[in-house]
Task: inverse folding
């Protein structure tokens, strides 16, 4: 390497150690959670091996299971992308479920009348845009409050999120109510107008959209000035302001993009799977995805396998829970355990546990020492 | 004076941190009634050694004797119980508590607060030190010098017989330094031992009875009392420099602080500087809550080819002034012009594009984004601008080329260009900040405490850069500093700021020091 590289102040940890500890940070909590979940299954008199085997069998190995899992991944990935955009900028968008449902209601409500009038592709594209705009619009109140008045967005997105969930319900029971159904729901978009299948499968186009969006988000974050602005904002709002970045614009646009992608997730789910939205429908992906997105350290590349894992778990686990005579909520328990062990792993890291981590901790200590001697 | 008994004796202290041997068999005797100065570059092991003594770190090897008895200091509490008190560089007082409440903190014995005792102690020690401290005033309202006095009083009340002062003068006025010197004389007369950590050689010779120099974790040598009293400045300087940088003394002859012994080198008066580049007319810049702002209309100009200094004790409106110019705060009134263009209503970015740069004193807090790489931090004020970004797309190669050149030019000590800035030392961060602000031909650069906390070499480099910036007569600089010697070395004119008021502007001619000092005191500070 060139000259500067030779002035080593403290050697960086070996690359292999770094990779290993990185992988373990992601995988560790999942393994611990599966083991702890297994113990719980044993205590309840169920066969953990059988349970997990069924989960994998019916979520991953069977043709329909695999297709179902991939279909499920589409909205999850899009929503993850939305969350990552906000979190990377240090903006806590907690109201994702509200943005999702508002967008879903609007897309389903406008979808049925639109698809008949417009050409097929145009209608779908327009509905995706509508979903994006609806989700983005639902972030305007929190983002403006944050950018101009410094109001804590954790509170506002949460509150506005609740309002969103209720408003979606009202929209479906009001202007978008179908008069052809006994339960309150929107009109159904005919099957032939929904997103097309990928050739030779029963997987709708959503997954392709999701992967393309993730790639675009990754590109934006790593290769563009806008992405760097958002990373600066997330790394240190004071440094971002000092550097002369337009912090207000960045807050509003990052929030809008976040809500927009979540809205797009809703559009894809409605246009790919359901064709309508019921007033009481709320998949509540948001809270689960928080865990996964953080487990992936806000890294787009890591989020894909983790979301895949979760999709398999929820599709296959559904079947496994049914066969084991357990309620579906058992899956939530596993998610809870993953979260718990994630916190545990982080805590253990700060205590300098496990070999690779000790090395890295050592590096930090010596740097701290150097800093102390200033 | 005969050999006074040892107050503290360190024998063969070694302390290593993974990858770093911070102290290597350091032996040091501090006698009663002496001020023992500790000199050394950043990273020489001064702080580690003192932290060992104060119970923050446990030594790997070696023993500590206090008043002749071998002791084990396992935690800060032990050190306090043994009569070792440390006054840190940055105040450890709680600003929203009163003086009395701060004194009572950490006196954990029993449930009841010993208010009466504390009041009595405050009175006793204030009298001893010859200072006046109001027990009921909030600490945040005290000047930094007064806060330091309070910290010394607190240490004394805890029964300290050995007082460690970590760079105590870095935030004081000349008068504050004088007061401190008087206080220390009082204390040593009472038989206390004082360990005085400093970067400034002149101060070490003015205040210290003996001087020890640490270099790369080892004790490089101690200059005894006889030599201190008998030698001339030049001899002593030579001795210390030889200890600190063996074999490098010749090369470092230009280093500012060392040169400071023969009196600061004043800049030659330039005949009529160029046109005004930065003009402030009657600006008012409000302070944040509890902060002194620029509360009286302030007018000041910086011309091309000129360095204008702003002297004053920290917290007298420096930060509002700097941030007001940079655009990080809005001026409530008045006008700010940059090369004739009104910039008062412009954003931070717009002012930067017009050639205004701001070297902040808050390096870690706002100067860099700590998790981002050195390379990105070096271009963080040009995000979106060519050649580093073209149509919003990052040109990694251009960024790295630019960063590599700056790392080379400014001797930025970083393992790689991708190293997160937050993991580097304060001196390195300052080099990054200075390198970034000085590239792309700035018109006016505002430096806020540019060498605060830096070691001799980095300080010299930064001062040298400020000089070179204005040399061509194309640019001007405004240097805000609490270090008067620095201002006298660098500036053509020095403005004095006190309690948010511009007290006056002094031409830097012989005798300016007294005039500046008088203006600082005239402000009613301390």
Result:
């Amino acid at each position: 390497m060139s000259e500067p590289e030779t002035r080593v102040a403290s050697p960086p940890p070996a690359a292999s150690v770094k990779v290993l500890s990185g992988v373990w940070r992601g995988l560790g909590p999942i393994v611990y959670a599966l083991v702890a979940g297994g113990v719980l299954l044993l205590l309840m008199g169920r066969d953990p091996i059988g349970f997990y085997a069924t989960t994998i069998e019916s979520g991953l190995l069977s043709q329909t299971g695999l297709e179902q899992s991939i279909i499920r991944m589409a909205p999850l990935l899009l929503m993850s992308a939305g969350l990552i955009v906000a979190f990377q900028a240090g903006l806590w968008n907690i109201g994702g479920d509200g943005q999702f449902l508002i967008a879903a209601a609007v897309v389903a409500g406008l979808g049925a009348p639109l698809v008949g009038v417009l050409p097929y592709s145009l209608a779908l594209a327009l509905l995706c845009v509508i979903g994006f705009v609806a989700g983005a619009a639902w972030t305007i109140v929190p983002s403006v409050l944050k950018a101009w008045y410094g109001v804590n967005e954790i509170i506002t997105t949460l509150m506005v999120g609740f309002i969103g969930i209720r408003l979606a319900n009202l929209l479906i029971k009001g202007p978008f109510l179908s008069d052809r159904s006994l339960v309150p729901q929107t009109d159904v978009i005919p099957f032939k107008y929904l997103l097309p299948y990928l050739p030779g499968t029963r997987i709708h186009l959503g997954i392709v959209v999701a992967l393309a969006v993730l790639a675009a988000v990754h590109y934006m974050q790593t290769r563009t000035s806008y992405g760097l602005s958002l990373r600066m904002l997330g790394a240190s709002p004071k440094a971002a302001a000092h550097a002369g970045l337009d912090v207000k614009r960045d807050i509003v646009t990052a929030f809008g993009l976040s809500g927009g992608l979540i809205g797009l997730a809703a559009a894809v789910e409605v246009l790919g799977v359901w064709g309508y939205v019921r007033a009481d429908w709320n998949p509540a992906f948001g809270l689960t995805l928080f865990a996964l997105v953080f487990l992936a350290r806000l890294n787009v590349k890591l989020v894909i396998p983790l979301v895949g894992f979760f999709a398999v778990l929820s599709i296959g686990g559904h079947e496994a829970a049914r066969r084991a005579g357990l309620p579906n909520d058992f899956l939530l328990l596993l998610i809870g355990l993953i979260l718990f062990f994630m916190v545990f792993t982080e805590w253990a890291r700060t205590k300098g546990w496990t070999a690779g981590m000790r090395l890295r901790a050592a590096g930090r200590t010596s740097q701290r020492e150097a800093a102390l001697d200033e | 004076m005969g050999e006074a008994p040892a107050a503290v004796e360190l024998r063969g202290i070694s302390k290593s941190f993974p990858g770093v041997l911070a102290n290597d068999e350091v032996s040091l005797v501090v006698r009663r009634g002496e001020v023992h100065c500790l000199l050394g570059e950043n990273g020489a092991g001064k702080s580690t050694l003192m932290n060992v003594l104060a119970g923050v770190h446990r030594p790997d090897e070696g023993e500590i004797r206090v008043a002749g008895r071998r002791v084990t200091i396992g935690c800060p509490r032990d050190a306090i119980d043994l009569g070792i008190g440390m006054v840190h560089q940055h105040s450890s007082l709680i600003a929203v508590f009163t003086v009395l409440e701060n004194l009572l903190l950490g006196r954990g014995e029993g449930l009841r607060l010993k208010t009466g005792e504390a009041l009595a102690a405050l009175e006793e020690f204030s009298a001893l030190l010859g200072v006046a401290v109001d027990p009921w005033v909030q600490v945040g309202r005290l000047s930094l010098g007064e806060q330091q006095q309070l910290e010394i009083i607190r240490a004394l009340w805890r029964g300290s017989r050995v007082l460690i002062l970590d760079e105590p003068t870095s935030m004081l006025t000349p008068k504050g330094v004088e007061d401190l010197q008087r206080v220390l004389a009082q204390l040593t007369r009472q038989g206390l031992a004082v360990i005085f950590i400093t970067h400034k050689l002149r101060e070490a010779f003015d205040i210290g009875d003996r001087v020890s120099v640490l270099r790369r974790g080892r004790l490089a040598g101690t200059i005894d009392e006889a030599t201190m009293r008998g030698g001339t400045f030049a001899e002593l300087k030579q001795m210390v420099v030889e200890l600190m940088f063996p074999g490098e003394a010749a090369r470092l002859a230009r280093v500012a602080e060392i040169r400071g012994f023969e009196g600061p080198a004043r800049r030659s008066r330039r005949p009529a500087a160029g046109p005004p580049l930065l003009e402030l007319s009657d600006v008012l810049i409000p302070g944040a809550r509890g902060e002194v702002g620029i509360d009286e209309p302030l007018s000041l100009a910086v011309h091309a080819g000129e360095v204008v200094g702003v002297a004053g004790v920290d917290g007298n409106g420096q930060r509002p002034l700097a941030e007001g110019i940079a655009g990080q705060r809005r001026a409530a009134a008045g006008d700010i012009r940059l090369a004739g263009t009104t910039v008062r209503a412009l954003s931070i970015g717009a002012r930067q594009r017009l050639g205004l740069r701001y070297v902040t004193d808050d390096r870690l807090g706002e100067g860099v984004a700590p998790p981002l790489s050195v390379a990105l931090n070096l271009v963080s004020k040009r995000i979106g601008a060519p050649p580093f970004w073209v149509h919003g797309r990052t040109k990694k190669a251009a960024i790295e080329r630019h960063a590599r050149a700056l790392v080379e030019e400014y001797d930025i000590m970083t393992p790689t260009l991708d190293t997160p800035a937050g993991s580097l030392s304060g001196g390195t961060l300052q080099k990054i900040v200075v390198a970034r602000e000085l590239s792309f031909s700035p018109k006016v650069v505002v430096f806020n405490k540019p060498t605060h906390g830096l070691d001799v070499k980095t300080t010299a480099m930064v001062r040298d850069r400020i000089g070179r910036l204005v040399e061509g007569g194309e640019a001007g600089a405004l240097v805000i500093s609490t270090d008067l010697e620095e201002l006298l070395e660098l500036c053509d004119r020095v403005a004095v700021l006190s309690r948010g008021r511009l007290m006056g502007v002094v031409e830097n001619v012989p005798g300016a020091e007294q005039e500046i000092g008088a203006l600082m005191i005239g402000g009613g500070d301390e």
Summary: DSSP finds 19 helices and 22 strands in chain B. Residues 93-158 of chain B form one domain. The first strand of chain B starts at residue 6 and ends at 17. Confidence is low (pLDDT under 50) at residues 254-264 of chain B.
